[in-house]
């Protein structure tokens, strides 16, 4: 199939995408967007989280054709001029160790903060429930999300279209 969609603010047309291809495979293998990670490959870890029309989805479980005519944002779409405030907050809070979960965590956090400027701890835990981290113990991640909320409250958010 010919797949036309918007990725990180740019319209792309990809010919010859197999019907069974996942969005994750298209992002990584066709577009070279390697920031989105493949962990479990079966919807359990959240490492592959991207935004589809602003909503977090597991790209490993999402058929590529479902993105047709829609807007996808990956971690590469957030850092337009230097790090995005959410990325800065993760760095500053020590919420990154091996970093494998980080792009997915950040995309879920970004989606949360777009719909809720001041989430409480239960909101944060709920938003990140599908994102697993083997390294940090999660405290630093919770700290990072709170710090990101404060940063985004203060900082003009240069969002990519549809984000
Ligand atoms: Fe998609 Fe684990 S790689 S949820
Ligand atoms: Fe290693 Fe989260 S920092 S899995």
Short description, anyone?
This protein has helices spanning 23-30, 85-92, 102-115, 121-127, 139-154, and strands at residues 3-7, 10-14, 49-52, 55-58, 71-73.
Structure, explained:
- Helix content is 33%, strand content 13%.
- It has a five-stranded mixed β-sheet, covered by helices on one side.
- The protein contains five helices and five strands.
- The protein is globular and about 45 Å long.
- The protein has helices at residues 23-30, 85-92, 102-115, 121-127, 139-154, and strands at residues 3-7, 10-14, 49-52, 55-58, 71-73.
- With 163 residues, the protein is of the alpha+beta class.
- The two termini are 26 Å apart.
- The model has no long low-confidence stretch (mean pLDDT 94).
- One FE2/S2 (inorganic) cluster is lined by residues 96-101, 133-136.
Helical region count? Answer: 5
CA radius of gyration is 15 Å
Mean pLDDT value: 94
Terminus-to-terminus distance: 26 Å
Number of strands: 5
SSE order in H/E notation? Answer: EEHEEEHHHH
Provide the descriptors you would attach to this structure in a database record.
5-stranded mixed beta sheet, binds FE2/S2 (inorganic) cluster, alpha+beta, 163 residues, globular, 5 helices, 13% strand
């Amino acid at each position: 199939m010919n797949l036309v969609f918007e990725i990180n603010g740019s319209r792309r047309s990809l010919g010859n995408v197999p019907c069974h291809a996942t969005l994750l495979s298209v992002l990584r293998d066709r577009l070279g967007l390697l920031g989105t990670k493949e962990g479990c490959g079966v919807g359990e870890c959240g490492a592959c989280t991207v935004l589809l029309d602003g909503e977090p989805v597991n790209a490993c479980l999402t058929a590529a054709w479902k993105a047709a005519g829609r807007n996808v944002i990956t971690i590469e779409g957030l850092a337009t001029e230097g790090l995005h405030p959410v990325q800065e907050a993760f760095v500053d809070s020590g919420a990154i160790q091996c970093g494998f979960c980080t792009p997915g965590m950040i995309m879920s956090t970004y989606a949360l903060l777009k719909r809720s400027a001041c989430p409480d701890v239960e909101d944060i835990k709920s938003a990140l429930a599908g994102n697993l981290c083997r390294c940090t113990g999660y405290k630093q991640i919770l700290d990072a999300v709170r710090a990101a909320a404060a940063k985004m409250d203060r900082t003009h958010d240069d969002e990519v279209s549809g984000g």
